[in-house]
User: Fold this.
Amino acid sequence: MPATTTRNTEYIPIPLATISLSGVANFSLYIRDNSSNSIHLYRDSSLLLDGADLQRLKDRGVKHLYITADAHLVYQQYLRNNFAAILDDDSLPISRRLDCLSEAVRDVLSEAFAQRNIEDTLESVKQLALQTVDLICHTDTTAQQLLKVLRHDYHTFTHSTNVAFYCVLLAKACGTTERCELEQIATGGLLHDIGKLDIPEQVLTKNGRLNSEEWELIRRHPTTGFRLLANHTDFSFGQLMMVYQHHEKMDGSGYPVGITQSRIHPWAQICGIVDVFEALTSHRPYRSAMSRSEATSILERQAGSRFNAEIWQCWKKIIQHS
Assistant:
């Protein structure tokens, strides 16, 4: 996430959902005053937050607190120490745990994309994939609960977070039960757009129609992503195909190659459906988000031709029950 500078001090926003009551936060917490657009001390490192504090912040609509830039490493360690405890805490509503997971995944992906460090990104994403599968598949999580907490903006890391969650839900609905496969699918979903690292931000967020050169840049991202990951022996063939083939279509109208149904990996077919659904239901600089029913109607018309009809029916059933 971008840092904010106030009075020569650099502050970094952190998701409120990542603050756990089970661990000691050895860093001070700051809050933004929206009326003056300034940041001031909320809680010194020597004082503990309690449940009432967190609830009051949530009731006020506070989504983020702030830490100073020099406390960032301490915060990252705190997050590693307490993240699992938050997700495993059955006393917490599933909505809060999902919110925490979603916020943390976006935070890590945002930082990884900004730093463009593939090795660090892969390591972080693997851990997040484990936690994604744990929470989505080993609790009573419903699609309705998940859809309620997900953001729907146009940032690449937000889109990748949502696609990964959707991929796990859909793969599970389609009959994938092996934990190792679900973890690989979650990782593939998180990294399916990693090829966009090489696309200028002004192209990704352009408020208007792309010109031919810009569209060509976009069409390259599956190939770029494949090349970035192809030499990593711990990245499976199915995961690579999620990156490389998620824009291919059953009738051969997709890219980067234009292959047809029999040559598109099943995981890529799963990713392709939820990728389009997530894109349609998210805000874009050039249009507002569609409703779920509008997106469903569009995909319904393309099922059997551009998208696998059986996989689509599984996703449609998930959406209709959420």
